[in-house]
Please model this.
Amino acid sequence: MEKKRLVIIGGGAAGFFCAVNAARLNPVLEVLIVERTGKILQKVKVSGGGRCNVTHACFEIEEMASRYPRGERFVRKAFYQFFTTDTIEWFQSRGVVLKTEPDGRMFPKANTSQAIIDCLMQEIEQRHVRLLLNRPVERIDPLEKGFCILFTSGEQMMADYVMLACGGFQKLSQFDWLLNLNLKITEPVPSLFTFNFPKHPLNELMGVVAANALVKIAGTKLSSQGPVLITHWGLSGPGILRLSAFAARDLVVVDYHFTILVNWCTDYNEQTFVQKLQMLRSQSANQKPVNGNFTGLPSRLWEFMLKQAGIDSTKRWADLQSSMVNKLAKCICAYEMKAAGKTTFKEEFVTAGGIALSEIDANSMMSKQHPGLYFGGEIMDVDGITGGYNFQHAWTSGFVAAKHIAADSMNATMLPIKDAQ
Ligand SMILES: Cc1cc2nc3c(=O)[nH]c(=O)nc-3n(C[C@H](O)[C@H](O)[C@H](O)COP(=O)(O)OP(=O)(O)OC[C@H]3O[C@@H](n4cnc5c(N)ncnc54)[C@H](O)[C@@H]3O)c2cc1C
Model:
């Protein structure tokens, strides 16, 4: 059988996963990973606070796909070939057992991303995948048969298959080296960012968490519920990051000037909260609100909101005027905050945008324009919310491409799905 060569550009999660699986499924395929920097799997290393949030404990394809603000339909198709269950089994069968945190995020039981890195490194050694570091690729030229890859050093390399797994780029101009491929690129914009409320009095409460707040962007249908963390510049936490992801494109348009309404205590809405306060006015008339936090919110947040409503510590429930009752209900259930601009670009964990999905066949990850060219991971216009979704996309796309390349290079029909392991 003629020996074919797969060159993977990018030594991140998607590139490694494609490499080890392609080499495993077709042992006579020559597989190389070329990496721009001197380091591999850097994001795997730092993600999840150095523990690597490998995937999410979600076992329904529909539900999992809905966690991708961009690419929902695309990932749904791909998940039928390699899903969260396959990721868990894949790593487990290689000695890396995953554990689930209460919020659904899955990490190596060893609690370190090094477990994933060691596993992938061991696999590439065992499968004889070659790793070339400090090799930035400058250009890919499709030939009549295969591709010619040009490095910035001037070196060239021929390949039968090319996998682009270069991660996300924050600016459109960073895709210029791919211009000759004539691929449609969706303009990158930040996703998964915190909200900026400079000099807001709430910022004094930095470190305080509302465990289950509902945050809405005024004038839109966009909302998200979950833990919200008060920081010294505004708001963060999973509830905010998730909203930033779903609102990523809308917020660029308004230059990150927008208003949010926060319900800090979702057991109530404004109306039912007013009813509760009226009941307390009659039933606990002599008690003081400052000692009567019934919301479950941290006491600092409760006291802050009392102050905002003009209720000082001497007041009893019976002393509250209607205007104070209404103001407190607003502060707790529809607290309005105006965001002014965006925090720096550096904090983003992922970028929305990338190679347009209309360019890619979701069943194989192959380019529709350039047969033999494949895509994996964040370079595509797919991004998930926080919680292991972006890594799952990297594993899935890497695996789907590997399976297709392996089958094509063996001139065989597609391998059965159970080859997932
Ligand atoms: C701080 C941080 C925390 C994160 N936490 C999580 C998390 O908890 N859960 C989660 O699911 N996701 C998380 N993510 C996102 C996740 O890490 C990425 O979605 C995932 O790593 C993408 O993998 P990738 O292989 O597509 O790209 P990358 O991991 O970015 O790898 C791409 C590689 O390609 C190389 N490259 C680029 N251009 C070239 C070129 N021209 N020639 C050669 N090589 C090139 C790069 O140097 C890089 O090594 C986090 C990201 C960050 C930054």
Summary: Residues 389-409 form the longest helix (21 residues). The first strand starts at residue 5 and ends at 9. Confidence is low (pLDDT under 50) at residues 412-418. The CA atoms of residues 186 and 353 lie 5 Å apart.
